[in-house]
Amino acid sequence: MANGYTSDLSGDDIRSNSDVPEVVVQRLPLYVRVLSQFESAGAEMVSSEHLGTQLQMTPAQIRKDLSYFGRFGKQGRGYNVKRLALELRSILGLDRQWNAGLVGVGRLGRAIIAYPGFRPEGFRVVAAFDADPSVASSAIGDIDVRPIAEIKNTVADLGIRIGIVAVPAANAQSVFDALVEAGIKAILNYAPVAPQVPPNVKVRGIDPVLALQSMTYFLKPDRTDG
Amino acid sequence: MANGYTSDLSGDDIRSNSDVPEVVVQRLPLYVRVLSQFESAGAEMVSSEHLGTQLQMTPAQIRKDLSYFGRFGKQGRGYNVKRLALELRSILGLDRQWNAGLVGVGRLGRAIIAYPGFRPEGFRVVAAFDADPSVASSAIGDIDVRPIAEIKNTVADLGIRIGIVAVPAANAQSVFDALVEAGIKAILNYAPVAPQVPPNVKVRGIDPVLALQSMTYFLKPDRTDG
DNA sequence: GTTTGTGAAGGATTTCACAGCA
DNA sequence: TGCTGTGAAATCCTTCACAAAC
User: What angle do CA A102, A104, A107 make, to 5 degrees?
Assistant: First the structure.
């Protein structure tokens, strides 16, 4: 995200900071992704050097990151691609399904429901919520849309662990509050706001505008291109 | 946002690292955003304390960040909301329009074109490109769709400074190459790949899956909720 | 009294560099 | 020989704490 603000840890039922830096956790999915690519390209072994080239990172950083979780490599040979991918997926909890609840079924919310990239990675949107009563109590595809007031019950009933917020900025904070109240500890936020949540709830923001705005800074010394 | 990997700087025509840390630049848009909110709420002045509460950051960090660019505050009073917003927008180059070219007009690409959040912030998608010849040379809304081979000319003709990549993973690298070849220095990447670009080209990734995958780590110690 | 701007301190992250193993 | 795993060094980033300004 661009740019995930991330409300931090040290809850009681969220994995505590223990001593793995947050940045390291954020890089793990990147490793999983390129390992998958190597895997389907048929590679058996891979070195930190090789991974580093793909990800434009130093080999040392990759080795250090992995060393927080175990000793997965073999000197002189590198890492077994399949094994390392499996280990990392297990560390991240990607070896199971995660149910998500989407709040806001406007244009963006519908695009999120239709997005085909979640399922193959084990994320399922199993319920949707909306403030508009004419939308709520209908259905989109095979997903029921319910009134916001039902978040808490539905979260419990369907085993929802992840919230996805796709409502207008003005309504976003009240949605965060409702999700937190429902016991949600991980939120993917598409709304252009800085969420106020307790420190034991993680929020990652998806915000293309913020991403663009931090790049224009570097474009400024603007040699008249066009 | 989620997690922007960011291929770094020190080009010749990209604002050099000088000595403002990259993290600081990435926070500036956040400040702009909450300042806008305060502005439309009618606030005249704001303190670093107050901003910090909104953004869940320490006041010291905000003051330090701002101090890289100038002395915008008044002791005892804080910052003038309108003035600070204006200064930051100017620093980030948000006081003008930026033209972007979108590559890939599938489901996601069309959603990006339809996204109403760019325009009000000064970002305009002025051209689209696609590999599929049956889509290229058509138009979507008021935007022409052209073959990928025309990127370079179109970038020059329309003054495009920003590339937006919304193609399938398999085609993404060749699109990055084409954009770089066309002289683009800032790319917003929606494709789930780690781009290989020269160090003077900035890339920010928008990737909800990566964002989710780094949150599940903290959910793992999984008290059977559902 | 309040709040900024900033050196200096403290903490976190990255990189170095090399012993140890295959 | 080739490459990992890792303490130690170096760098980067955040927070502290206070003089100066309003």
Answer: 110
